[in-house]
Amino acid sequence: MKEKWIQRKGVLEEMISWIFMLFFFTASAFGNEIELLNQWSLLDFNFPYGSGFQAKFKPERTFFTGVEITDDRIFLAMPRVFAGVPASLAFIPRNTPPGSSPPLEAYPSWNWHLAGLEGNNTDCSQIVSIYRIRKDSCNRLWVLDSGVLTSLEDYRPTCTPKILIFDLKTDALIRRILFPREVLRPNSLLTNLVIDESVQGACDSAFVYISDTVAPGIVVYDSLKDTAWRVTHPSMFPDPDFSDATIDGETFTLMDGIIGLAHSPNLGQLYFQPYATDRIFSISTSELRKGPPGELDVLPVTLLGRKSSQGVGLTIDPTDETIYFAPTAETSLASWNPLTNHQREYRQHRKEMSGFNWLCIVMSISASTWKLSESVPSRSEEGISEIFNWTQLEFDYPSEDARQRDIDNGIFVPGRAALIDVDVYYGAREELNKVFVTVPRTRDGIPITLGTVTANNSADGNPIIKPYPSWGWHRNASSCQRDRLIWVVRIKIDECGRLWVLDSGGRNNGQICPPQILAFDLKTDTLLYRYEIPSSQYEYRSLFVTPIVDVRDEECNDTMVYVADALAFSIIVYNPTLGVSWRATDETMYADPNFGTYDIHGISFDLLDGILGMDLSPYKPGSDRILFYHAMSSITENFVYTSDLRNRTRFESNPQSSPEIFHVSFSIYNVQLRWVHGSLFRIWNHVYSYP
Q: DSSP character for 135?
């Protein structure tokens, strides 16, 4: 046994030494593409100052084998197969930029990971070494701790294997489960688990099926009765004919038994596979739940099918019973539906899915990787799922008397306000998520212009909107106080957790205050930036509607904001670091009189709005970005390279100095373009009459 671990250690260390890219991919069952979410050349952590973890950290020996995705976080399990792994469980925020390399946060805190300090006597009440984690329907994280340290060096069983259950709302430990000696073997290595909530109930009534990879078998845990038993079968053992694996030309020996698990609650089946095999097996979960098998009992295991090569990860789409797996030799993801025999392969560039990259990918497939959109509005038969609806907007007044006073004074006219824009912030925990909405003051009687949707409803069922950041920002608009919000059309939340607010300062009743750009830190709801646009950069007719935020670094220091002026036909470029802005204009931003007449549902009106819809091409380090834009009353789609737009010297003396940098991409005839990321707020005003 020791020879096997030493052999695995040598090969894996050799593979790690020549390639350091770790990828986390997710694929949709409805398409053939694989989406890159995050990547690291080497994993890194937010270390506590002066703790000693960083000094012991060996990034070249730290990689993840388990992934679980919640509404606001992506959890990663990093087993301590080598020394030098500071934390065996960590997370990153879910809303990080695609392709970014965010540092990992130890979970639930660094105090749980003292085994990462070499020489420390391991406290078995803490986290030792984790391969897999699972989230249940009660928003709790089940953490399977193998209790084995340095399994690819000297294989040290250090603590009794256990399951830790954390409440994801509070991150508090709510249950600890120690496995009894009779279900373990001297060389047991518990690596994977699935939670079955389909039989006797959810949460603490669930069954859990756990793989023992080195002493092959399945441990069944009855959470309701707090009992466990063990079953085994020859299909769970490695096949010597498949002990050698080749990834991207590198061959190594890996005689691992059962590791991949997937559960179909609809069919009542547990699918499993050893690593060293080309087969996938299944067994009815009713057989597993019978209790400890008798001495002569034989498990009724079924051979489900054969694969092209070995594999680790296994998961299932419960909507159609499609099984997903990752054959190592092909460096690809594949799927097979045992009910329809439909097969599909999901490929990525081999350069990115080679060597150790691919080993980490196939080890990290879990059911949650196919559920990234579980908290996002899903498709329905109607095409769009409804999240909120209002018969009229209602606001979070401190009392009914305060609401009535605003009505009596004409500050609030029920039924007059309308939503224009929306953006969503995903906090570190689900309860910190916020849905932001804008309410432009198109007429009198609209008490706020920016708010968040609360979980509370009015008496007639309308979701209540809370003023952001507070009521004080929306009162006494004419005084132009420093902390003010007058007339907000569009907002933008960037990848740094900042809310950018574009306040036009007034429109329908004239320019009340200077237009301004603000940014709030959404973790603390504090103001980070406030910038009044100089009067030399706008006109009496200006209407600032759309902010686009361009972030170029992980520290969020290299940031620019592009602002559309729909009626003065220009773009304002704002540099928050320097606290300066400049104006650029071009004929491509103008409204076209030939397309100024609209007809919507039989209602005809004229609208000569210029540049409104804007959006950026994806950011790739070392490459330029393109700002796409179009005028509302126009049929052309246009673009400009941001390197030209960010060049302040071009426009300091003349905003119209560089017509050569603005390009027409294409035209669509007979229809006006409404959005790239734009809104129909002015059309709304024309089509619908207010009380």
A: E
Contacts of residue 346, defined as CB under 8 A and 6 or more positions apart, other chains included, come to 27, 32, 33, 34, 332, 333, 334, 335
Side chain identity at residue 12, one-letter code = L
Q: b or e along 117-130 (b: 16 or more beta carbons within 10 Å of the residue's beta carbon)?
A: beeeeeeeebbbbb
Q: What's the pLDDT tens digit per position in 459-502?
A: 889 999 999 999 999 997 778 889 999 999 999 999 999 999 99
Q: Which residues contact 631 (CB under 8 A, 6 or more apart)?
A: 569, 588, 589, 590, 591, 592, 609, 610, 611, 612, 673
Helix (H) or strand (E) holding 53: helix 53-56
In this structure, are residues 279 and 34 in contact, taking their beta carbons and an 8 Å threshold? Answer: no
Q: Are 58 and 86 in contact (CB under 8 A)?
A: no
Rg (the chain; Cα; Å):
29
CB atoms within 10 A of CB 399: 8
Chain centroid to CA 161: how far?
Answer: 31
Domains of the chain with bracketed CATH: 2-370 (2.120.10.30), 388-526 (no CATH), 533-691 (2.120.10.30)
Q: Global pTM?
A: 0.54
For residue 665, the surrounding DSSP H or E stretch is: strand 662-667
Task: State the pLDDT at residue 683.
Answer: 36
